């Protein structure tokens, strides 16, 4: 039987909220009109979605269209509910609408558009002040979502959009995000390997918001030391070994 653990901060946020705030399985999605949006070009793809630059033809403004691949309805509702709750939160990508193709029934999420430069190019150009500024902005985003009882669970450079010319940062991709409840056991198959906290690597399921802070630290280390990823394990076991070596060695550049 694993030891029980409870978050040191914001532990009871969802206990003090009405059930409809976190009960995404009972959530009724309010679908918008798909014809209000037009796909312009493909931006990329992930395990659960394809992403396009789009145009809102009602106001001629750019947007981002995330077309979801077939997954369980519960997972889709969880992402939408969390994004609805986080609408307007500091430095969190804003969900503008949710639409569904009337024939294929494929859902798509419509987001605000943010110009972004590839982090592999950007991080090498950042000054010490820039790094501290973006660290602070990302911390603001995470503290805001944690204070609302939500864990992101996939913090990594690919999910941090930075428009450097406007000094704008947005935390994106809330597909793995989850509501925190003390004592609940969660899936450990979250986050990308290089940014997984030690608890995930040892299959400890009773984790909390601190999971995001480990990932955040890995992102910051990548920025500061110009090393991406900072912990480069070949598998989960090797990832844990590299973390352990780093923590016991004085010379952090030896890994």
UniProtKB/TrEMBL annotation:
Signal peptide: none annotated. Residues 37-255 form the Protein kinase domain. Pfam families: Pkinase. GO terms for cellular component: cytosol; nucleus; protein kinase CK2 complex. GO terms for biological process: regulation of cell cycle. Keywords: ATP-binding, Kinase, Nucleotide-binding, Serine/threonine-protein kinase, Transferase. It is an enzyme of class 2 (transferase). CDD domains: STKc_CK2_alpha. Coiled coil: none annotated. InterPro entries: CK2_alpha, Kinase-like_dom_sf, Prot_kinase_dom, Protein_kinase_ATP_BS, Ser/Thr_kinase_AS. GO terms for molecular function: ATP binding; protein serine kinase activity; protein serine/threonine kinase activity. ATP binds at residue 66. Its EC number is 2.7.11.1. It comes from the Eukaryota. It catalyses: L-seryl-[protein] + ATP = O-phospho-L-seryl-[protein] + ADP + H(+); L-threonyl-[protein] + ATP = O-phospho-L-threonyl-[protein] + ADP + H(+). Belongs to the protein kinase superfamily. PANTHER family: CASEIN KINASE II SUBUNIT ALPHA. This is non-specific serine/threonine protein kinase. It comes from Schistosoma japonicum.
